[in-house]
Design goal:
- Helix content is about 30%, strand content about 25%.
- It has a ten-stranded antiparallel β-sheet with strand order 1-2-9-10-11-12-19-16-15-14.
- Bound molecules: alpha-D-glucopyranose.
């Protein structure tokens, strides 16, 4: 590939041409302290959440882009040459740089002016800081006198207030250098905690102190941006480095930065290691613990140990599902990069990336509920905690906050699908763990009463019953999964056909649970489901596919009678998932997807693209054709299409879609985004620039690709009573291996496909004993050998 490729069995992605078409980033975090890092050194850091706890600045939509970041400048004192240990910000000698993104760490390698530089970035698991571990090696035959300048630009608290109220907000920035502790400290004496952009004057200081220090002696330092960079320059060529002198003055206002200057001398062949720490200390404990905190992680031993821990914890996560298909590129994605992205999305919560600056919204309810599926297999405890958090965003009538912050703030909207994702998260967790006691856990509703998790689920059923339109389908409100179908039926509501299909699918899940635990609400829930099913069957089939919605005047959307948006992907995929019709109809629906939506770059979300604004449909019609929800290849729903094809037993087609959607499939100059993770969408052929991806990393695509590829292509999925084996694979695969943990046992599943079928299991042996049916029992053993013969 032109810009880089997987190395080290796929565990790392090495960027060998660092001038990538967009910043290609990675995530470094421990669950509290978060940082992104790009191939340019561009970076955002925050504690807890990117809106209220922003540590360093990142400039939105600015040029040069992807600035600022975490920089180390080197100056050769004798020649006056200046470069940086990541290619940017100085931006010279591009060919002499590489970037390696691994799981939880990133390494920049450089070879400039005969000095080899290595810089590793990571966040240790149990301390709220990021560590930059550097090394300089003198590969020349002369002695080198080098200056090292480390650079960060501070935000210090509420990121949006920092942007919109710059002139005033900066009067509260305090940065000072503590000579005794060889450490720079920064904080703000004012802090807004509202979740929107505001100039509200709260009577409090930011609750953190930032510290920035080094294992090297600090000769000089700087705290104000203009003094370091110069007013009419940028990070490429700071005036202070050119002069070789920093003011070493503290600051109590202004654009706050941290620069630490050290000097090293390197004999020919000599190596010098150094470490920087950028971290936070809670203000309430600052005086007691600052000395011990700033003294940590300044030696290579402790730093290397901390990095090993990060790597081990990712290996542990990956070890719970490990596949060997006949195709090595699939294995790299399925074993590492898809679960990695899924877990990052779960932990980060779709709020920070190159595209999301973490200032607009908190955790989305539906997104978070789906992201839970990323961790149910490998770390079900985390899923349980997250589901409990979700349950606390619900009202007694089953409505939920659309967006929420972990500190209790939230926003209600009229999106009709939100609450139902809760059912999916809970049933997925219970199937994986068998932890039915969880249903008895009591959690508060938002309107103050309390209830068990089961009560929360049943509240969702009430919500379903209470929100039906004239055709007995869910009232659309301000959107369903698709946020841009927001004016279906004008201001009045309209009805969501996809919503009905999704509700049925979720009710099927719930019915499965209630049957298993023999619950008294079973009959009532079945009733609700059956009624919805009848309503869909009555009015939603359009001859060759299912329509998408019904407007207030009865107008169909996603119908052949429309000029634009005649057919939508989601209705067809979820018709299959919800099992709403007979097989022939479902096959016809998916064949219509193939015929009308599939394209070179993947299946489009709808087609034809809207070319005219329709007030009674909404945002989708305002969006440029071929992008995002307006007939773009929106990657998230393509996962449901893959699931649906598997459910109908068409392994070949499921595989083709899966393979076609891999992020490294399109050449990088066209695709532009990272080839190691999914993007939210790919521009389709309804636009002049097809194949261009955007909104990488933070998308539900990852978690669904992870689970659909395991649960439906490999076909190994948890049930309440055991582990189901139901592969839907391409006929050309003659065998595959899959190791999967399930309730304490490692099932080593060896699948053979001697008759080249796409679906169907003939025989299964567990530890050489043939079993009836295709559900592996829950075992006491630590390990079990499972032989599966398809046919
Ligand atoms: C974005 C949103 C997600 C929504 C999707 C489709 O990805 O985060 O919640 O379902 O767009 O509109």
């Amino acid at each position: 590939m032109k810009y880089g490729d997987f190395i080290n069995d796929g565990r790392e992605f090495k960027i060998t041409n660092v001038e990538t078409p967009t910043p290609w980033i990675n995530y470094l975090y421990n669950g509290k302290y978060f940082s992104t890092i790009s191939n340019n050194g561009g970076s955002i850091s925050y504690i807890d959440n990117p809106l209220h706890g922003r540590i360093t600045r990142y400039r939105i939509n600015d040029v040069p882009s992807d600035r600022p970041g975490k920089y180390i400048y080197i100056k050769d004192k004798d020649s006056g040459e200046i470069w940086s240990l990541t290619w940017q910000p100085v931006g010279k000698n591009r060919k002499n740089y590489n970037i390696i993104h691994g799981f939880g760490y990133t390494i920049s390698e450089s070879f400039v002016n005969d000095i080899k530089g290595v810089l590793k970035f990571f966040v240790p698991q149990d301390s709220n800081r990021e560590i930059w571990r550097g090394e300089l090696i003198n590969r020349s035959s002369r002695k080198r006198n080098l200056e090292i300048y480390s650079y960060v630009e501070f935000s210090l608290g509420h990121a949006l207030v920092d942007l919109i109220n710059q002139c005033d907000d900066q009067h509260f920035n305090r940065v000072n250098f503590d000579r005794e502790l060889n450490t720079l400290f920064a904080t703000k004496t004012y802090w807004v905690t509202e979740n929107f952009g505001t100039q509200q004057q709260e009577n409090q200081a930011w609750n953190q102190y930032v510290f920035f220090n080094s294992s090297l002696p600090i000769k000089e330092y700087e705290t104000r941006r203009e003094r370091f960079i110069g007013f009419y320059r940028n990070e490429n060529n700071p005036v202070a480095i050119e002069k070789g002198h920093l003011s070493s003055r503290d600051t109590d206002y202004g654009n706050a930065i941290g620069v630490l200057k050290s000097e090293v001398t390197l004999q020919p062949g000599q190596t010098k290691g150094f470490i920087y720490n950028l971290g936070v200390i809670p203000k309430e404990k600052f005086n007691q613990i600052k000395e011990s905190e700033v003294g940590k992680f300044l030696e290579t031993d402790s730093v290397d140990k901390a990095l090993r821990q990060v790597k081990d914890s990712w290996e542990k996560f990956f070890s719970k599902t490990n596949v060997k298909t006949p195709e090595s590129d699939l294995n790299i994605f399925m074993n590492y990069w898809i679960p990695y992205q899924a877990k990052v999305a779960f932990d980060v919560g779709r709020v920070a990336s190159y595209y999301y600056w973490g200032i607009g919204r908190g955790f989305g309810f539906r997104d978070t509920a789906q992201d839970t599926l990323a961790t149910t297999i490998a770390n079900p405890k985390k899923a349980r905690q997250r589901i409990a958090l979700l349950s606390r965003q619900m009202f007694t009538n089953g409505k939920v906050y659309h967006h929420f912050y972990k500190d209790g703030q939230g926003e209600t909207t009229q999106h009709c699908d939100d609450p139902l994702w809760f059912i999916l998260a809970v049933t997925d967790y219970l199937k994986e763990t068998g932890d039915f006691d969880f249903l008895k856990t009591v959690e508060p509703f938002l309107d103050e009463s309390k209830g068990t998790i089961l009560d929360h689920i049943l509240a969702v059923v009430d919500y379903i019953k209470d929100n039906k339109g004239p055709n007995g389908l869910p009232i659309f409100g301000r959107g369903d999964w698709n946020d841009t179908l927001d004016y279906i039926g004008g201001n009045g509501g309209g009805e969501s056909v996809w919503g009905a299909l999704f509700f049925i699918a979720m009710l099927n899940e719930l019915i499965g649970l209630l049957e298993f635990i023999d619950n008294k609400h079973l009959a009532e829930v079945k009733n609700v489901r059956d009624q919805l099913k009848k309503n869909v069957q009555k009015c939603c089939w359009d001859g060759e596919w299912f329509i998408r919605a019904i407007g207030n005047s009865g107008k169909k959307i996603g119908s052949k009678s429309n000029k634009y948006g005649k057919i939508y992907l989601n209705s067809q995929a979820w018709a299959v998932i919800s099992k709403v019709a007979d097989r022939n109809k479902l096959i016809k629906a998916l064949d219509s997807v193939k015929k009308h939506l599939d394209s070179e770059f993947g299946p489009k979300i709808c087609s034809p693209a809207y070319q005219e604004i329709d007030q009674n449909i909404g945002l989708v019609t305002r969006c440029v054709p071929g992008k995002k929800e307006n007939a773009g290849v929106f990657c998230h729903p393509t996962t449901w299409l893959i699931q649906a094809e598997c459910m109908l037993g068409r392994g070949n087609r499921a595989y083709q879609y899966f393979k076609n959607m891999l992020p490294n499939r399109i050449d990088s100059d066209t695709f532009t985004a990272e080839p190691y993770v999914y993007s939210q969408y790919i521009t389709s052929d309804a636009n002049k620039e097809p194949g261009k991806a955007s909104h990488s990393w933070q998308t539900g695509t990852a978690v669904w690709m992870y689970r659909v590829s395991i649960d439906y292509i490999l076909g190994v999925r948890a049930q309440y009573s055991g582990l189901k084996i139901d592969p839907a694979i391409p006929a050309k695969w003659d065998k595959l291996n899959f190791d999967r943990y399930f309730r304490g046992t490692l099932y080593k599943i060896r699948i053979k496909n001697p008759e080249s079928v796409q679906k169907g299991v003939k025989e299964i042996y567990v530890d050489d004993h043939k079993i009836e049916g295709n559900i592996l029992p829950v075992l006491d053993n630590k390990e079990a050998e499972v032989k599966v013969i398809m046919g």
